[in-house]
Every structure is written in C-alpha cells, then in structure tokens.
Amino acid sequence: MSFLNKEICDGDNPDLTEERRTATFDTDRMAQVIYGSEKFAARRRQITKSISRIPALQDTKPLAFMTREEKITEACRELDVLSDHWEQLIYVNDEEEALHLHREVIGMEGHPFALHETMFIPTLVSQASDEQQEKWLGRARKREIIGCYAQTELGHGSNLRKLETTATYSPSTQEFILHTPTITALKWWPGALGKSSNYAIVMADLVIKNKSYGPHPFIVQLRDEKTHQPLPGITVGDIGPKMAFNGADNGFLGFDHFRIPRGNLLMRHNRVEPDGSYLKPPHAKIGYSSMVKVRSRMAMDQGLFMAQALVIAVRYSAVRRQGFLEDKSQEVKVLDYQTQQHRLFPSIARVYAFIFCGLETIQLYEKLILDVNKNGDTSGMADLHSLTSGLKSVVTHFTGQGIEQARMACGGHGYSMASYISEIYGVAVAGCTYEGENMVMLLQCARALVKAVELVEEGHPEKLSPMMAYLTKPSVTVDLTVGPEAYVKIFQLIAKKQAFKATEQLHKFMVAGDSRDVAWNKSAVELTKASRLHTRLYILKTFIRRVESITDISVKAALTDLLNLHLNYELLDVASYALADGIMSSTQMDFIKNQLYSSLEKIRPNAVSLMDSFQFSDLQLRSVLGRRDGHVYQNLFEWAKSSPLNQSEVLPSVTQYLKPMMEKSKL
Ligand SMILES: CCCCCCCC(=O)SCCNC(=O)CCNC(=O)[C@H](O)C(C)(C)COP(=O)(O)OP(=O)(O)OC[C@H]1O[C@@H](n2cnc3c(N)ncnc32)[C@H](O)[C@@H]1OP(=O)(O)O
Ligand SMILES: Cc1cc2nc3c(=O)[nH]c(=O)nc-3n(C[C@H](O)[C@H](O)[C@H](O)COP(=O)(O)OP(=O)(O)OC[C@H]3O[C@@H](n4cnc5c(N)ncnc54)[C@H](O)[C@@H]3O)c2cc1C
C-alpha cells in the first residue's frame, strides 16, 4: 500500500498497522498543517521519493560505526551526489527545500554547507550592499565558495562588546588589518570553519583612528581558492570532537595583521569612507541580525528535533509489549501505560506548539528584513529580539527534556546508538548554548519585560507593544470550563505577577543603593522566571491561534485534543505560582489534573499517526528502533551484527592481552 495513505504498508509490524488504522485523521492533511502549506508538504514527499531513487544516497554504513573523519568524508560525498542531482531534486534557490534536502540526506551531525546556508548567505543578504551582493552572493549561492560565520572567540561568546579580534582601518592603503592580539582572541567554535570553508564572515571590532566602533561583519577569504591552503597570515584548524555534531569541523581562526580591502566591511547599513569617516547604521544592533534570523528559526528546528525523537519513541512504544493489564493472556503495548503516555504525549503537544510558533516567528523575521532592507524601517527589531531571545531559551530547554524522556521511554534500547536518540539529544541541546547561552538570552528578554512594567508603572500603558499588553490586565476570577481563553487569562495573570515581582525586586535593590547592574544581578533568577512565563504564554497563544485557523474537521479535532493536553499540562507545571498568589484554587487544580488524564486517553489512538504525520523517511530518522516498518527486533539484530567488532570472532585485544593474562593466571 502507498506510503502516502497513513503510511500503512503490507509487511509492517501488525501492531503499528493497527495503530495507523485507528487514527481519526489523514496524515497527509496533518502534514500540511505541520509544514505550513499543502504545497510544501507535498514537495517534501516528492523530494523523499526522488532521493529514494538515487542509489548513491541510500545509507551505506551506519553513522554510529563511523569515525569523525569517515563522517565528514561521507557528508562531503553525499553533498557531491546531491549537487549532481540538485536541479532535479529541488527548486534552485529555494532555501527551505535545500534545508530539507540536506536534513534528509546528510542528517543532523553537520556538513560543510550548514553554516554557509544558515548564516553566511543570510548575512550577505541582510548586511552586504547591493554592490557587495553582486560580487559575493551569486558565487555563494552557486557554491563556488564555502562560507561560515566566525564570531565567538576562545575568551568571549556571550559578551559581544568584548570581542578582541580587531579590524583596524588604514586610510593610506584603504585596507582593514585583521589581527588576533591574544590567545583569547582566537575565533573558536564556528561551524565548518576548521577545514571546509574558504571564506568567512568575521565579526571584529572596527577601529578607526584609535577609536573602537564595536563588532562589525567583514567578509574574509581564508584559503586559496585553488589549493585550499590557508592564506599567509591566517591560522585555521579544527577544535576537536564534541558531545555531538561530529560530522562538523567547528574551528579556530587567528589573524596575523591580515589585510583585506575596505570593500570587505559589509556596508548595507554602515560605511567607512576612504578617508576613514564612519557612517552609523540606522540601529546600533543591526549587525546582530544573522543571530536573530537563526533564533527565529529555532522553535521550528528544535520542534523537528524533538519530533524525530518522539517518532522513534512512540512507534517503539506501540510495538514493545511488556507486562499485563486486564488480559493476562497477552502482554500490553507499553504505550497503553498511563505513565508512558504522560511521559510522551505532553512532548508531542510541545512539538506541535513549537512548530506552529516557529512558523510565525520565521515570517516575522522575513517581514523585518524586508522592512529594514526596503524601507530602512528598524522599528520591529527590539520586539523580535526580545521574543526570539526568550523563545530560543524556552524551546531548547524543553526540547532537551522531551528528548531525554523519549530515550527513557524506550528502556534499554533507547540507550543504544541504534535508537539514535542520544545523537538527536546531543545536537538539540547544543541549541541551549549556541545563538546565545540560554540564561543570557532570558535576561535579554527580561530587559524588555522590565521596561514594559516600568511603562505601566509610569502611567504609559498605551506605549506597550501588543505582546506586552497583558501586563495591564486586571485580576479576575476565571471559570476554566469555558475553554482555552480561560487558560490564557490565568497564564496572563501568572506571567504578569512574576514580571511585576521581579521588577519590584530590582527596584528595591536600587532604592537600597545598588547600581542597576548589581540590582539586576541580584534579581536575575526572578527575572529569568518572568521571561520563561512570558514566552510560554506566547507559545500557548500561537498554538490556540493555529488550531482555530484549521479547516479540516478531523485534523482540527485531533489537534484540539493535543491543545487541551498542552493547556492543562502547562498550567499544572506553573501551578505553584498560581497557588502562591491565590490566582487558582486547589479545586481548580484538581479539575486541571483530571482534564490532563482524560486528554491522555483521547490522544492514545492517534499517537502513532500524530508522529507519522511528520513524514520523516527512515533515511532521515537514522534510527534502527524507530523505522517505519516497526520490525524492531530483527532490525536491531541485523544492526548489531554489522558492528565492526563482530567482523571477526576473536579480537586482537583478546589474543594480545586477555589470552596471555588468563594463561598467566593458570600458572
Ligand atoms: C546548524 C547549526 C547552527 C548553529 C549555529 C550557531 C551559530 C552561533 O552560535 S553564532 C554566535 C552566536 N552568539 C551569540 O548569540 C552571542 C550572544 N550575545 C549577544 O547576542 C549580545 O552580546 C547580547 C544581545 C547578549 C548583548 O549585546 P550588547 O551589545 O552588549 O547589548 P546590551 O547592552 O545587552 O543591550 C543594549 C540594547 O540592545 C538591544 N539588543 C541587543 N541585541 C539586539 C538585537 N539583535 N536586535 C535588537 N536589539 C538588540 C537590547 O535589547 C538592549 O536594548 P535596551 O537597552 O532597550 O534594553
Ligand atoms: C555546537 C556549537 C556550534 C557553534 N557554532 C558557532 C558558529 O558557527 N559561530 C560562532 O561564532 N559561534 C558558534 N558557537 C559558539 C556559541 O555561539 C557560544 O558558545 C555561545 O554564544 C555561548 O557563549 P560562551 O561559550 O562564551 O558561553 P559563556 O558566556 O562563557 O557561558 C558560561 C556561563 O556563563 C553564564 N553567563 C555568561 N554571561 C552571563 C551574563 N551576562 N549573565 C548571567 N550569566 C552569564 C552563562 O549563562 C553560562 O552559564 C557554537 C557553539 C556550539 C556549542
């Protein structure tokens, strides 16, 4: 049977087939909602089909059995095959399709073009002048050059104002001199910098006539285009193995008075004239826009990471039988246990919530870039910065938790690399650190919250942005049986109370004589709590908005169950705030718990199809445990047999050490 028809195939594990038959909605229709349009969902399936017809792209050796060098070589081989088929696989220059193609074929462990696409090209688009785009963007898009984004240094990642790499302007030669003055100024961490890239966007402190203008983006050639050797004055290399992402060559980079032409400072928004005079950008932080772009995508990307782990865990839970319920003649699917459902289903709801939210924030970023580039309008920057700062922190934290629960839900087999969950976990939790360490970004979000509270306190609520308007809402008694809007109201009250309390604490320390910075640090934990609540409220509201907009009745019904679970789970999770402030009663708490448990039962028959709807191919999942056919035991055994350790019966380590040791013991 067709892959498209709720993924039911003859020969699949009957337990999974049974799950797919009981679903109350069509997985293709659900995929349209997940991926934002019928067109893109259909294109994804088409791309998967086309990939499956290219023998050179079928998984050869499992990644788990490869060394780092082998992983990097394999990714490059796949990129080469892809480039031969590029035009028949995807629409050329379609960023989303290219991203999907790489995710499906190469996976998540990294490849030389990862930063080229996510940061190098976007920085050229947002920061390079038309003239500069003419020179580099076409070449970058055609992949004549490979670029990365080199900002973080050995000594500084979070505090960009203290980056030490300098770009000193020399008016006599009209060049910038890039220099790494200390060991801590070495660029450290940039993806694809170590061995693959021959170009980089380098963030360096712009210095003109001994005056520092702070970090600015420069385009820098690192390696000879013919020989790929580093250019004189450049030291570059790989930083070594990491917790995950071992198919990527995160790198280090140092400059020894390395000269680049004046035209290599990206000058869409600011300029350095030949005589060294400096023209300011329309917004001081416009040079940070590539980070905002990646952060705006993170709700979607992290949602998809968690989805991969949950596809594996939910399918496996429908196949794994262990223990009994009423019928003692047959063991039950572990998915029937309430604890298993409670472990997995709230994360399924979060996956959908994050993805819906991601669809919105990606659009917000695109609108912002259009406003800035076409009309010079930077008024949306502050809001998008605070929103995406909070969002990246909240989604990465919960995604890490959700993936770890998915691993545990698979028992012992979850711990095997055959499940691939540990790799997904390692890749996903890097997001807690990259694009701004989570605490640092929660505190950025808190800056906007405190400002908004201060506006309310100063009697200027009309100046609040729509996202902050809830800070003016009066306390009310809420009847939870009314539906989602009642949950939003309670959440708003909880978030508002925390924002005011944290601000009050900040002001109290300041009144007592602390500077704002010291008072801020003494209030930081409370401030981060306010940021989390504010962000979770936003996610909750986008989930409701999206479900309300769905027209397919059966899809909407299934997602309404998931939304109800999310509302009850989220509110229960923050109930301590509500109880402490008398916003909710213990009777209401009992109501929420009961709603939560009944949501688990409602979702149970749809669980497998809710995850099948993501339509990840087996190639993309890379999980022996989570394959679509559900034949986990046969698949696991075949995988274990392919382990390099099993290619001979007696290992050299036995002959060389264990045997002589045992012989010695006999004497
Ligand atoms: C495939 C895998 C992909 C992996 C990709 C990973 C790539 C990377 O990690 S690249 C490196 C990422 N690095 C980071 O994210 C660094 C994090 N640090 C920062 O962004 C900054 O240092 C930051 C924002 C914390 C502080 O910046 P700083 O210049 O010191 O500003 P700060 O003094 O705190 O704030 C000044 C004002 O600027 C505002 N501001 C800061 N950033 C922005 C922004 N991007 N847009 C708009 N306003 C901003 C603040 O809100 C603040 O406003 P206000 O005064 O009104 O409250
Ligand atoms: C997989 C991966 C890929 C990456 N890719 C790139 C890339 O392509 N290009 C690039 O330029 N960089 C990249 N990075 C670097 C990354 O962006 C930084 O590591 C990140 O921004 C965090 O900075 P840091 O390492 O300086 O952490 P630190 O700031 O040193 O964090 C250490 C601790 O200090 C705390 N802390 C720091 N400042 C404050 C503060 N003001 N208030 C409260 N607490 C604070 C943090 O919360 C954290 O607990 C990558 C990193 C990883 C892990």
From TrEMBL:
Acyl-CoA oxidase C-terminal domain boundaries: 484-663
Cofactor or coenzyme needed: FAD
GO biological process, one term: lipid homeostasis
Domain Acyl-coenzyme A oxidase N-terminal residues, every copy: 26-146
Domain Acyl-CoA oxidase C-alpha1 positions: 288-450
Pathway(s) served: Lipid metabolism; peroxisomal fatty acid beta-oxidation
Listed name of the protein: Acyl-coenzyme A oxidase
